[in-house]
Amino acid sequence: AGIMPLVPGWSEELGPVTVRAVLTAGPSVLDSYAPDLRGLAWFDPFSITRKAFGVGTPAAVLIGTDGRLAGGPVNGDDAVREFVAEIAEHLREAQVADPAQ
Fold first, then answer.
1. Running DSSP on this structure, what letter comes out for residue 58?
2. CA 20 to 30 Å from 7, out of 15, 22, 39, 101?
3. In this predicted model, what pLDDT tens digit does every residue of 29-44 receive, in sequence order?
4. pLDDT at 101 over 70
5. pLDDT on residue 33
6. Mean pLDDT, rounded, for 46-50
7. Which of 76, 73, 60 is nearest to 10 (CA)?
8. Between the CA of residue 54 and those of 38, 72, 79, what are the distances in Å?
9. Are 92 and 18 a contacting pair, CB within 8 Å?
10. Helical spans, DSSP H, in 45-76
């Protein structure tokens, strides 16, 4: 089934991390293919992002608040799911370490 349907849930679960799907199509793809990604998608019809990170699809990266690569890239459905789970675990650990968050 792929990872696209999981993106909205990840967006909620991983806050304060911002989750975005980068699609190699234009915005019209949301109408028929991925309406749940409205507001969660960036569009890269020339695959510049994929080429810059040297990955296929699906893939994931974590960009830090400093704009630098903080994790990944990972490539493939299973690797992306594991990566998201790892980020979620780090966020949970940070909340336990600092309950004020």
1. S
2. 101
3. 888 878 899 999 999 9
4. no
5. 79
6. 94
7. 60
8. 26, 11, 15
9. no
10. 48-53
Q: Could you give the CA distance from residue 41 to residue 44 in angstroms, rounded to a whole number?
A: 10
Share above pLDDT 70 across residues of the chain, in percent, rounded to a whole number: 96
Q: For residue 5, what are its two tokens?
A: 């349907």
Token pair belonging to 21: 């799907």
Dihedral Cα 64, 69, 51, 59, nearest 10 deg: -70
pTM above 0.85, yes or no: yes
DSSP-assigned letter for residue 20 = -
CA distance 14 to 71: 14
CA distance 30 to 40: 10
Phi and psi angles of residue 48, each rounded to the nearest 5 degrees, phi first: -65, -40
In the chain, the amino acid numbered 17 is V
Alpha-carbon dihedral 85, 78, 12, 40, rounded to 10 degrees: 140
How far apart are the C-alpha atoms of 46 and 26, rounded to whole Å?
A: 10
Amino acid (1-letter code) at residue 81:
R
